[in-house]
Amino acid sequence: MRVLAAMSGGVDSAVAAARAVEAGHDVTGVHLALSAQPGTLRTGARGCCTIEDSRDARRAADILGIPFYVWDFAERFTEEVIDSFVGEYAAGRTPNPCMTCNEKIKFEALLDKAMALGFDAVCTGHYARLSLDEGAPVLRRSRDESKDQSYVLASLTPEQLRHAMFPLGDSLKTEVRAEAAERDLAVAQKPDSHDICFIPDGDTKKFLDAKLGERPGNLVDAESGEVLGEHSGVHGFTVGQRKGLGIDAPAADGRPRYVLSLEPVSGNVKVGNADHLGVTEIDATRPIWPSEQPLEGPTECSVQIRAHGETAEAVAEVTGDTVRVRLREEMKGVAPGQSVVLYHPEAEGDLVLGSAKISATR
């Protein structure tokens, strides 16, 4: 097969490309330039997509003996990922930009271009397992549970998954680094990137303040309706947040306050104690089913709402274009804008049934 290997400049994508070459595929490496003004150097594990990353990717491609190109996706990335991220926060929702990037950039923009150029598949360094069952994609968690990325890949369509390759799905991270060292890849011990790539200093509030400016509103006690203080914008908060609320007076019962809900129209940020954070029912829209088979009737499943968050047992049912998820026990910090990913409980809890965008909670 003709395979386009997306090479970020990190150890995972380099080893994934190497394995594609070793499997006998005709591999071409490509680095995606996602910033019009990329930084020159990374700071440890802060951010990615810098000039240094591009050079690291090129050096890895040279060692593998494959052609290498840099494709400019900066404008598309800004529109699809950064602008969407800012807009979601302005609307009082909590997005996951990595899911958006995978969906819109790596497996829409990149895959579309790859297909137009005659490639058969796009190969990435994601930690997830992928197979085809009678032509239908089967997406599973990776062997390395601590690195599993099936959650952020669960928004991909069946057609996108049919043209995807994840060579690292059956490997541990330690094995990947050891293999990189054996192949003399300079990125063998390069730190992983842990932050949002377009916010390399990790200060999301500062980034959003610069984009949205001040949008004053009130901090309101959810039970009494008492105004407890003011804030500069709902975009500076997320459901479940405890620190940095800017409330001077302690709660009457002495317990910590948490953000319970965001109201972008009124500007109110409602706060209360942890007892009010519990959610037992989730509504989610825009469902995606990797196997192209929607749920039929109430379905037992386990659900995850964060990239590396815990799972909870639930019953999910599709009504129209909405997936209603009833949790067996409460989950906290569930916010509109997050994605809920459903896993099959009888397949060792690792088979992805589908995903959807959270629109409401109760």
In short:
This protein has 362 residues and is of the alpha/beta class. It has helices spanning 11-22, 51-64, 74-90, 97-116, 150-153, 158-162, 173-182, 204-212, and strands at residues 2-6, 26-33, 68-72, 121-123, 129-133, 136-140, 164-165, 217-221, 227-231, 258-263, 268-272, 279-288, 299-304, 311-319, 322-331, 339-344, 351-361. It has three domains: 2-125 and 167-182, HUPs (Rossmann fold, 3-Layer(aba) Sandwich); 214-276, Roll (SH3 type barrels), CATH 2.30.30; 278-361, Translation factors (Elongation Factor Tu (Ef-tu), domain 3), CATH 2.40.30.10.
Walk me through the structure.
The structure is a single chain. 25% of the residues lie in helices and 29% in strands. By secondary structure, the protein is of the alpha/beta class. It has three domains: 2-125 and 167-182, 3-Layer(aba) Sandwich (Rossmann fold), CATH 3.40.50.620; 214-276, Adenine nucleotide alpha hydrolases-like domains (SH3 type barrels, Roll); 278-361, Beta Barrel (Elongation Factor Tu (Ef-tu), domain 3). A six-stranded antiparallel β-barrel has the order 12-15-14-13-16-17. Helix 1 crosses helix 7 (173-182). The longest helix has 20 residues, at 97-116. It starts with a strand and ends with a strand.
